[in-house]
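TASK: fixed-backbone design
INPUT:
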C-alpha cells in the first residue's frame, strides 16, 4: 500500500498524487528484478550474462516508457477538465479521490508495463483519469476491471464496439436494449446483414468481457440455414466506451 505524504493546503490533490507516484521505483520491472536475482547465484557463461543484461536494459526502458505514457495520458485528461474539476469537488472530496486513486494508480502502472500497444496503454490512462474525476465516489473494482479489459482489446475491437454503440446506444431502456430492437438495429451498422467471420471473432471476444451479448437467432430460422450472428450492447460496453473517451478540449 502506497502512503500519501502530507499535502500542503495550497497543493492540488492530483499534483500531490503525481509527485507521490514519481517517488515510486516503478521503472524497474518485477521481471527485471527476477533476472538480476537469478543471475546473481547461477553461474552463467559470458554470452548469457551479456544477453541477460541486454534483456534487462530493454525491458526496464520499455516499462518506463509505457508507464510514463499512461501517466501523461491520465494527467492530461485530468488537466483538460481544469476548472470543471475544481467546481465538482470540495477539498475533502478531493482528498478522498486521491486516496481512492492511490492503489488504482499503481495497478494502472503495472498493467501499462505489461501492455505492448501504446493505444491500449493510453486507454488505461484514460480509464484511470475518468474514474478519478467521476462525480460519484470512485469504484475501484470497476476501474481495475475496465483497465484489465483495456489491456486486451485491440483497436479493431474498440472500433466495432463503438459502431454497435452508434446503432444501439440510444435504444437503452431501463438498463438494457430490447431484443427485437437490438436485432433490427444491428443491420443498420456498416456490416449490414452479411455473414463475416471477423465480426464473429471480434464480438465473441467482446462478449467474453461482458461488453455485449449474443442474440438468440429468430425462431423461424431453419436449423440447417447459415445465418449471421447478431449481438446486443450491454451496460458494461457503454460504460467502457465512456471511460476511454477523451473530453473535448477547451
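OUTPUT:
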Amino acid at each position: 500500500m502506497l502512503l500519501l505524504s502530507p499535502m500542503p493546503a495550497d497543493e492540488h490533490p492530483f499534483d500531490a498524487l503525481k509527485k507521490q507516484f514519481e517517488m515510486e521505483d516503478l521503472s524497474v520491472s518485477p521481471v527485471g528484478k527476477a533476472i538480476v536475482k537469478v543471475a546473481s547465484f547461477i553461474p552463467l557463461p559470458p554470452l548469457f550474462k551479456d544477453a541477460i543484461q541486454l534483456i534487462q536494459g530493454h525491458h526496464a526502458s520499455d516499462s518506463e516508457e509505457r508507464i510514463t505514457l499512461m501517466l501523461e495520458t491520465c494527467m492530461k485528461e485530468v488537466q483538460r477538465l481544469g476548472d470543471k474539476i475544481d467546481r465538482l469537488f470540495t477539498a475533502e472530496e478531493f482528498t478522498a479521490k486521491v486516496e481512492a486513486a492511490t492503489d488504482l494508480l499503481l495497478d494502472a502502472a503495472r498493467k501499462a508495463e505489461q501492455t505492448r500497444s501504446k493505444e491500449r496503454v493510453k486507454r488505461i490512462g484514460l480509464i484511470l483519469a475518468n474514474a478519478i474525476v467521476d462525480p460519484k465516489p470512485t469504484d475501484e473494482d470497476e476501474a481495475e476491471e475496465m483497465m484489465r479489459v483495456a489491456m486486451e482489446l485491440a483497436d479493431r475491437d474498440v472500433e466495432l464496439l463503438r459502431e454497435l454503440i452508434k446503432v444501439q446506444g440510444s435504444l437503452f431502456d431501463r438498463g438494457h436494449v430490447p431484443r427485437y430492437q437490438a436485432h433490427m438495429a444491428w443491420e443498420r451498422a456498416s456490416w449490414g446483414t452479411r455473414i463475416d467471420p471477423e465480426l464473429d471473432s471480434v464480438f465473441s471476444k467482446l462478449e467474453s468481457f461482458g461488453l455485449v451479448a449474443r442474440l438468440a437467432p429468430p425462431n423461424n430460422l431453419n436449423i440447417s440455414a447459415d445465418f449471421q450472428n447478431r449481438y446486443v450492447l450491454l451496460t458494461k460496453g457503454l460504460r467502457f466506451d465512456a471511460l476511454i473517451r477523451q473530453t473535448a478540449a477547451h
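COMMENT: The domain at 155-243 is CATH 1.10.10 (Arc Repressor Mutant, subunit A).
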